[in-house]
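[step 3/7] fold_predict: job queued, chain A
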Amino acid sequence: MSRTALFDLDGTLLPVETEFFLKHYMDALAEYFASLMSGEEFRKALLGATYETIANLDPSTGNLQAFATSFARLSGLPWDTVWPIIERYYVDRYPKLRVHVPDNPVARDVVRQCVENGWRIVLATQPLFPETATRERMRWCGIDSLPWEMITTLDNMHFCKPHLEYYREIVEALALDPLRCVMIGNDMQEDMVAKAIGMKTFLVEDFLIDRGEDLKPDGRGRLADVPGAILRLIPN
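[step 4/7] structure written:
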């Protein structure tokens, strides 16, 4: 049976400190809502809706629906007013955030090597952004044209990291054998938890996030180490 490499995006393939990037993201998006609410009110509603979406474990509610319901309630704005504004932001302003992200030519080379070694590839990024935004960030690190079998987004997932339901949803969608999968990411708690459903795990330490829980990845190192390291985790 084929092997599958699941890659996180932000902080793993995309060289960015999450908090730094999110500050610019929220500041820019808040400007688009300035005529409807204050920046502080907007940030409170956005963060609140994000946390509620992450917490949602109702399999009948997709992430987009969960976020829409939460944001509309917390902001007091109807979703049919909110969504066109967000869509316009992602087209007009979001690509300009590229200036805050350094180049990372290693990312494309690492994923390309994995494909050449026979791995199927999945972009297992936290599904809190719509597909438009996720594909934009993929372009920033040159991985957008690679043969991804699945890209997890706000639009197509029902669960978020660190819930095991997130990983099970990917497994079920692609009919994967977890024992033939490696989850590769920089977040100890969100990414390495995939080990609990049988996946191997590799912790990328370039932009390491570790909140101190006792999790033990099967391997760890730099992003450039990934192609060789995962071959050792699941040999041919």
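[step 5/7] annotate
The first strand starts at residue 4 and ends at 7.
The mean pLDDT is 96.
exit 0
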